[in-house]
Amino acid sequence: MKIFNGAPTLSPKMSERQVNKFLRSGKMNLQFVSIDKKNEPNIHPVWYIYENGRFYFATETKSKKIQNIKQNKIAYFSIANEEEPFTGVRGKGESKIIENKNQNSEMAKKIISKYLGNKDSKLAKEIMDEIKHEFEVVVEIKPKYFSAWTFMS
Length: 153
What we know:
With 153 residues, this protein is α+β, with helices and mostly antiparallel strands.
């Protein structure tokens, strides 16, 4: 994976190991940017997981995100924390709608576990029900590159 230094005058370059560790930690939102049919950006915060070099998030099948992905697979993303050391990763990639119901269910369980801690809450059950009835699907983002930074104030 190509990793650029996102703040070269303020931050040392992050290694791939550091980037992967950051993307797997915490409960930050991924800011997902899709491009609509007017070629304008739409930004949406989403819960995500990062594994095997890809991001995954769930969304409603009729959402603007899904409409945009069907028109244009290009995706931009940004994840940043608000604590020292101030760290973030942004980049560009290709998005894909996961059609496999079993894969959607497995990814949704992982996302729920990350953000809610377990699958027993009312919200967790609602999300899983939406996935089961295909009212929600999972989107995969395959990054082309990362621009990463980390620095202290």
